Amino acid sequence: xxxxxxxxxxxxxxxxxxxxxxxxxxxxxxxxxxxxxxxxxxxxxxxxxxxxxxxxxxxxxxxxxxxxxxxxxxxxxxxxxxxxxxxxxxxxxxxxxxxxxxxxxxxxxxxxxxxxxxxxxxxxxxxxxxxxxxxxxxxxxxxxxxxxxxxxxxxxxxxxxxxxxxxxxxxxxxxxxxxxxxxxxxxxxxxxxxxxxxxxxxxxxxxxxxxxxxxxxxxxxxxxxxxxxxxxxxxxxxxxxxxxxxxxxxxxxxxxxxxxxxxxxxxxxxxxxxxxxxxxxxxxxxxxxxxxxxxxxxxxxxxxxxxxxxxxxxxxxxxxxxxxxxxxxxxxxxxxxxxxxxxxxxxxxxxxxxxxxxxxxxxxxxxxxxxxxxxxxxxxxxxxxxxxxxxxxxxxxxxxxxxxxxxxxxxxxxxxxxxxxxxxxxxxxxxxxxxxxxxxxxxxxxxxxxxxxxxxxxxxxxxxxxxx
Length: 468
Hints:
Elements: H1 2-27, H2 31-41, E1 48-54, H3 60-75, E2 80-85, H4 92-103, E3 109-113, E4 119-121, H5 123-129, E5 133-136, E6 141-143, H6 155-159, H7 161-182, H8 186-194, E7 198-200, H9 201-206, E8 212-213, H10 217-224, E9 228-231, E10 234-237, E11 244-247, H11 252-260, H12 263-282, H13 288-303, H14 311-329, H15 335-349, H16 370-373, H17 375-396, E12 410-413, E13 422-426, E14 429-434, E15 444-451, E16 454-459
Parallel strand pairs: 1-2, 1-11, 2-3, 3-5, 4-6, 5-8, 14-16
Antiparallel strand pairs: 6-7, 9-10, 12-13, 12-15, 13-14, 15-16
Helix pairs in contact: 3-4, 3-11, 4-5, 7-8, 12-13, 12-14, 12-17, 14-15, 14-17, 15-17
C-alpha cells in the first residue's frame, strides 16, 4: 500500500516538474535572439558636423554668428560643431560672449586654426583654447594676446599705469580660466597675454596649448574620433570620423555687421554721407545726393556701435563739412574752405578711439589705412571746394532765367517789328516786341531790354550786347 502511494506521488510530480522547467525555459532570454535584435532597436546613423568659418576680426557680428551656430548644432542634433578660425583679434566683449557660450555648450566643439598661413591672434587665442578639441594647420601660428589699444598704442601711455595693470591682469585671468577649464597650459596662456608670446603649431602642440596638428578639417575630425570630451551635459565620446560636413553661412545681418567692422569702411561711409548732405545744401531739391548721404550716415552710425569711434572726430568731420558749405554762402576768401578741409583730415585721422578699454586685443584689427586717412578727405574737400566755387561763380554771373535772362538773347522776328510792335521767337518762347527802327519778318533780332511782357529788340549786329 505504501509502495503504491509513492508511485502515485511520483507520477504527479514528474509532469509538474516538466511544466515548471518549460516555464523557466520560456522566461530565460536567448543570447542569440538578443544579439540579433539590438541593431534593429538602435539603428546606426552617419555622423553630422556643423561647420562655421571665421576669417575676420572678432566683432559683435562674429559673436552673433557663432552663437547662432551653437544653437543650430544643439537643436539639429549634430555630433559636433567645427570652427575654422583665422583672425587677427578683435573686440573684448564679443570674445567673452563667444567663450562663455562655448564653455556652456552641450555640443562638442572642434576649433581648427586654418587654412595654411592662418593665425589665431589675440582674441583667436581665447576662442581656440575654449574648444573641446583644439587643432592647427602645420603652417599656422597662435598667440600675441597682450592687451593693446585699438590703434596699436600702449595702454599705459594712453590710459595710465593703473589702467594698464588692471586690463592686463583681467585678461591674463581670463586666459588662465579658459585653459584650466579645457585642461590646457595655463602658464602659456598667461604668457601669451603678459609677454605677447606667439608660437607655431608644433610648439603649441609640445606646450599642450592645442591637441592636434592636421592639414584640413576632415583630418582633424578623424584624429579626434574616439576622444572623451567634457560638455555642459557631461562627458561625451566623439564619433566624428568620416562625418558629413554641413556648413552654416552668415546671415545678411551678420555679414553687414562684419562688413561694417572695418574702420576704413566706416570712415568712407561717414565722408560720403557728409558729402551727399553737403551737395543737397548746395543744390536743394536734387534729392538723390541727400538720400544717398543720409543712407551712408545711417550705416556709419550703425557701425559706430560695432567699432570704437571717437565722438570728437565725428564732430570734426561734421564741422569740416559745415565750413565747406559756409564757403559757398559767405565771402571768406577761402578761409572757411581751408579750415573745413583741415577739420575733415584731422577728424579722419582721429576717427578710431584709442582710449577705449573695450578694444585692446590687436593693433592691426582696428586701424585706418593711410589710403583713407589722407587722400580721401583731401579729395572730398577738393570736390566740395570746387562745387562751392561753381556756386559762387553762378551767383556772380548774369541771370539766364526769367525776364532779365532774355537781355542779350537773339531770336527771330515772326512778323515785322517796329515802334508799334510785333511778334518774335526768343529763348524757346513767343514774345511781343517793339523796335525803334523797323525790322522785317524773318530777320534775326537781339533783346536789349524787357518792359513787362514786351521785349525791346534791335536787329542782330546793329549794336553791341547790352549787359543787365
